[in-house]
Design a protein that fits this description.
The complex is a heterodimer. Chain A is built from 14 helices and 14 strands. By secondary structure, chain A is of the alpha/beta class. By secondary structure, chain B is of the alpha/beta class. Chain B has a 7-stranded mixed beta sheet, sandwiched between helices. Classes of the chains: A alpha/beta, B alpha/beta. The interface between A and B is medium-sized, with 27 and 23 residues.
Chain lengths: 359, 188
């Protein structure tokens, strides 16, 4: 059986990257995400698996190193926190445009601007509504525990290579900094050059040997070709919605009131649901695990069952728009969330449910 | 069983590591655990606190408003956290440096003279283990042998020679924890 450890979310993610057989990590330190690069530098994975860990001169350099390494078919990741992710967005758009697999981790802090180093979920729009320029989407995983910080790394790589598309792990300062018990997966070997050519040689720039040239670019000056590329991207996103949606329902079967929350807010809201049930309020929780694809259909079905929905996030109200669109305004939907790095308590969430939804 | 604990004091008092040892002890007896620190500017010389939860079930929120136990190690933390103890819960504090003592009557209040005892034992760093010992006397939620195992896990091997001293400190805390007797208000 694999090892059981007490780790911070950021450390568990870093260790999981090594064990997933990643080839490279490029990053730049920023609170509350710095433990990722600190852990990797201490652990020296180049001695364990040959994985490259490099602190770039900036976030922009790091994301472009990711672009370069991903072009060669390597398993590569980067991580940062909100202001750093803003800097990386140009590169992320290029990764999407050039159809490159890569994993990007955002351990969100409060914003806008330099904001605060305390936890936040205010990068929801940036994560699921584009962020960078152009018609693209990211597959977005939202871990709610240290175990998921670890498990989602391999899941993210699987999706990235399945679709040849960048995948975002959207965490936050709370999940990144807290410690929990984590069951680590066994070490996966990195691909050898031969294995890599066999697996990714059809598209990656692996050094041409008796085959057509593979070209990695996001530029297409012929409009017809560019439109075809956009359509190809949209097809991928449709397929993601069909095949790779993830969510969790907690006490939804008999729920009269629903809370929708992801990541750290889902954990806090689960406690609010427990407190509500103790008071005789039939509350339930829908936790989107992927933020794109989003559990639209599941919400629409629940809309016929519940009297109202509270969307809970550590921000001023972003996901509420997706909740409202999903339920097609069939039931009242309200937002609750603290901002500025303040974390709402389960009691505050319950109070909001009672005041805004139950009334 | 679920025990929700806040440990709060100055940065450098071993607040976070006490929480870590407690969390590791929970793992040693197959419990679910969470350790949620305050981080950032407040840690650097200011106040530090950590929420630790040990439970037989899956833990929902790692961040809480109310606690079964508050372990309070400075005045700022007393001001902030006395009111976060659930009715019937316990508050443990080191009276050293405390000028405004707790006043709640619906909770159990205990003192551990950990600063003084650590000085007597000649090692300031075992302060937090004395406090931990006091806590474990009142709330024996983890077995001492699991605490020792937890210590082995959370200390790097070059500090393992300090484990007997830590054990001694825990015992010292267990012996010396005393219920706090509130003084009746004198009406002048």
């Amino acid at each position: 059986m694999s090892e059981l450890k007490l780790m911070k979310g950021n450390e568990a993610l870093a260790e999981a990257a090594i064990r997933a057989g990643a080839d490279a990590y490029f990053g730049y330190p920023i609170t509350p995400q710095s433990e990722v690069i600190e852990y990797l530098m201490t652990e020296q994975p180049e001695k364990r698996t040959g994985m490259v860990v490099l602190q770039a001169e900036s976030e922009i350099a790091a994301i472009n190193m990711v672009y370069g390494a991903a072009s060669t078919g390597k398993k590569v990741l980067t991580s940062s926190s909100s202001p750093g992710i803003s800097l990386k967005l140009e590169g992320i758009s290029y990764l999407a445009g050039a159809e490159l697999p890569a994993v990007i981790v955002n351990v969100v802090r409060g914003g806008p601007g330099l904001g605060t180093i305390q936890p936040s979920q205010a990068d929801y729009f940036q994560s699921v509504k584009g962020g960078g320029h152009g018609d693209y989407k990211l597959y977005v995983l939202a871990p709610a525990s240290v175990q998921e910080m670890s498990d989602f790394v391999e899941d993210a790589f699987d999706i990235a290579f399945k679709y040849r598309a960048p995948v975002l792990i959207l965490s936050d300062g709370l999940i990144g900094q807290m410690m929990e018990k984590v069951q680590l997966k066994d070490q996966k070997p990195r691909l050898t050059d031969e294995q890599l050519i066999e697996k990714n040689g059809s598209w990656a720039v692996t050094g041409r040997k008796n085959r057509e040239r593979n070209i990695i670019t996001s530029l297409d000056l012929e409009s017809e070709k560019m439109e075809k590329r956009v359509h190809r991207l949209m097809k991928k996103y449709e397929q993601m919605e069909k095949e790779d949606l993830r969510y969790e329902k907690i006490l939804c079967d008999d729920a009269e009131y629903l809370i929708v929350a992801y990541g750290s807010s889902a954990r806090i809201s689960q406690k609010a649901v427990e407190l509500a049930r103790k008071k005789g309020i039939k509350a339930g929780l829908l936790r989107p695990i992927t933020l794109f694809p989003y559990p639209k259909q599941q919400l629409l079905e629940l809309a016929d069952q519940v009297k109202g929905i509270l969307s809970v996030e550590l921000n001023a109200g972003q996901m509420i728009e997706d909740v409202q669109l999903s339920v097609q305004f069939k039931v009242p939907v309200e937002h609750f969330g603290r901002t500025g790095g303040i974390i709402h308590t389960p009691e505050e969430v319950l109070e909001a449910l009672e005041q805004k939804i139950i009334k | 069983m679920t025990e929700e604990i806040i440990i709060a004091g100055f940065g450098g008092q071993g607040v976070l590591s006490m929480g870590k040892i407690l969390a590791y002890s929970g793992i040693m007896q197959n419990q679910e655990v969470s350790w949620m620190p305050s981080y950032g500017p407040e840690m650097r010389g200011g106040t530090a606190n950590v929420t630790v939860i040990l439970s037989d079930e899956r833990i929902s929120s790692p961040y809480l408003k109310l606690f079964d136990t508050a372990i309070i190690l400075n005045q700022q933390s007393m001001d902030k956290f006395e009111n976060t103890v659930k009715p019937g819960g316990i508050l443990i504090y080191d009276p050293n440096g405390i000028s405004v003592h707790p006043v709640r009557k619906d909770i159990k209040i205990f003192q551990v003279e950990a600063t003084k005892l650590a000085a007597e034992m000649g090692n300031k760093k075992i302060f937090n283990m004395i406090i931990l010992g006091g806590f474990l006397k009142e709330k024996p939620i983890v077995k001492l042998e699991n605490v020792i195992e937890g210590l082995k896990k959370s200390l790097s091997e070059r500090y393992h020679f300090l484990i007997p001293l830590n054990e001694e400190a825990i015992n010292k805390g267990m012996e010396s924890i005393t219920p706090y007797k509130m003084k009746e208000k004198v009406i002048e």
